[in-house]
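User: Fold this; tokens only.

Assistant: Input:
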Amino acid sequence: MKYYLKFHFDPAFDRRTLTPRRRQDGTVDLYDLGYVQNVLAGEVLAEWLPAEQAPAEADRRAFFAEKVFPYGLGCTPDPQNPDRLVAAVNGYVAFDSGRIMVRRNLVVPGDVDFHTGNIVFVGDVVVEGAVRAGFEVVGRNVTVKGLVEGARIRASGSVSAEAGVKGSDNAVIRAGENLRARFCENAELHAGKNLLVDGSSMLCHLYVGAKLAVKERLVGGTATCRGSIYVGEALGGGLRTQTRLLLGYDPELISKDRSLRDKIHRTTERVLLLRREAGPGGRLGRDATAELAEMERRLDGYHALRHKLWLNRHGGEDFSVCRVIVPGEIGANVEIGIGETVMEAPDGARDVLFRYVDGDVVMSSPEARR
């Protein structure tokens, strides 16, 4: 045995024996179990060294009589250094059946929960089960075959939630390109390009870069879209449920503005409470006064950020391309805004088209425009 193969990853890694990562303060993160060993194309996976440089605890399987890399798909010898094996693709590295391999696609065979921890992967992810509340999945393209609960999903490409999203106000899904869900309830969905809901959207906040289509009902919440919105069966409904559509603006700008307005609202309420509590004398008064000063500082900062957000927007919106198409029925409490113009949609109208004409939102029948 003349040569020692030094691994730059853990060849003994086993997902069946995952343990929580320990933080610097000594506590453990139950959501971080290190489910995959990510590598990027060009990253060194292993290299040959003289046997005498091997550490005393080296596995005997790392010693070889000849310099022949034991590798399979996704790896290649470094053209600039033949003693190094590098990743040929982005993916996860594993030592499987005596061979080093890098796989582009990751399949999680069950739920994403405390058995797996969060999933953060540089390639495509398929989750065969559900994504449970409180967990996160990050990948290039993400497919979830089970239900998405109050979880977070981020993809630079597209996301597919095949069983739907039931978020309990805590689900946030972000797709750099397209997003498709069987249905969505109490969730926040972002699509850089198009968003398709095969069923209904109930009490959601939708942010769409190009086109939004909901095949059945869109009831409650908000939908912000640069281009067009299609709702097949019913838009709005319920005397106490407000449904707001806003078209023409950058949806991510509107999302950031909403987040800042929520922070301003919560902080303002805290400031008003502290102003009542703060007063001369007593520990409560002194503590409240100190916190009040901090809350007022934060409030000023949020207002400044919101002003800067709108001051620096790119502009150049083309409201004439915006459309709201509803072959079905308009329910109660529907507000449609295109640009700065807002219209209260008439309750009970059917088979209608809303568009922007000369500074106004006008309603007509798609049939009449053919």
